[in-house]
Amino acid sequence: MSTTATVRVGLVMGSDSDWPVMEEAAKALAEFGVGFEADVVSAHRMPHDMVAWGAAAAERGLQVVIAGAGGAAHLPGMLASVTPLPVIGVPVPLRYLDGMDSLLSIVQMPAGVPVATVSIGGARNAGLLAVRILAAGDPELREKMVAFQESLRQTAYDKGAALRARAGRAGVGFGS
Ligand SMILES: Nc1c(C(=O)O)ncn1[C@@H]1O[C@H](COP(=O)(O)O)[C@@H](O)[C@H]1O
What we know:
Layout: E1 7-13, H1 19-31, E2 35-40, H2 47-57, E3 64-70, H3 75-82, E4 87-92, H4 100-107, E5 116-117, H5 123-135, H6 139-167
Parallel strand pairs: 1-2, 1-3, 3-4, 4-5
Helix pairs in contact: 1-5, 2-3, 5-6
Bound molecules: ligand C2R.
């Protein structure tokens, strides 16, 4: 998965062990042709580099940050405190506590420092949310998002048709 588009999204995570989860955000961005960079940035293990990365992100041309981390996941909140960019936090589930630790570390931000937190392991939605944020000021990207939403609707129609057939009972039936 590579992209030659202008880099607009910074996709960072506390460790390379988060990549199997975070890759879904990368895939969603690539689907929409949104350029991104991916890297390991850790608030706990490289605090000064983390602050430097966050402080420079907007000036480097990034427009949205997606930050994923597991366990005591302070990365998204700390990045949000040093950048004016929108930050989307992804709670990464680890072996213990099922990601609840990460979710609660990310979601309960103090007033004034927002992080848009997606579900545990919800990296695909983080990618899609980043696309929506960018699409608000980008008509071409917005058209792609509308087409994507239309495909979701068609998928739901198809599921309904399959279910009605399996159940052997006609329902109301939506769509074509
Ligand atoms: N939560 C954080 C932060 C941070 O928030 O700064 N840095 C690393 N980590 C997390 O530690 C977990 C284990 O990392 P390792 O697999 O490298 O031991 C990862 O899920 C990472 O996101």
